[in-house]
Amino acid sequence: MRQKDLKHFLAEAWAFIAIAVIAFVGGLLIGDLGSSTKTETVHISAAEEATEAEAGAEGEEPAPEEATANSPNAQLFTSAGCGSCHTLAAAGSTGTTGPNLEESLAPDDNTAGIEEMILNPNVEVVEGYPGNVMPQNYGQTLSKAEIHQLAEYLVETTPAKPNP
Hints:
The chain has helices at 2-32, 46-57, 72-79, 101-104, 111-119, 138-141, 144-157, and strands at 87-88, 93-94. It is mainly alpha-helical. The protein folds into two domains: 1-35; 66-157, Orthogonal Bundle (Cytochrome Bc1 Complex, Chain D, domain 2). The protein has a two-stranded antiparallel ribbon with strand order 1-2. Strand 1 and strand 2 form a beta hairpin. The longest helix is centred in the first third of the chain and has 31 residues, at 2-32. The chain is elongated and about 90 Å long. The protein starts with a helix and ends in a 7-residue tail after the last helix. Residues 56-66 have low confidence and may be disordered.
């Protein structure tokens, strides 16, 4: 009788372990379905910069940068994660966690003001959106030049105006 109890106990233990492993693996798979580990870094090579400089040196004005989803500014907007929360047609983003930037940025917003909004997002929160959602660490994760570039890009692609 004792051997039968031991076999029964071992069978139950293995069944429990098998169910736990299946549940764990299922949780991992389901938990990762909505996330993306893809990161993208954009670098401009010295050859591209030299080509632009040569075009300007020959008396030709380089074509103004188009505000398209393929522009370096749009790529910075995307790589910084802005497009995952904000809608901005020029960047091809349709995020809805944060406000639509074409609607929430107004002509009285300027480059310096937008830089402040990026660095301190809870100072001015768009009505209808909660505070403490936008990351507070862009001052540490982005350089001053990148923050300025993002602000200029938003001025180019929204009703916001450059600094006077």
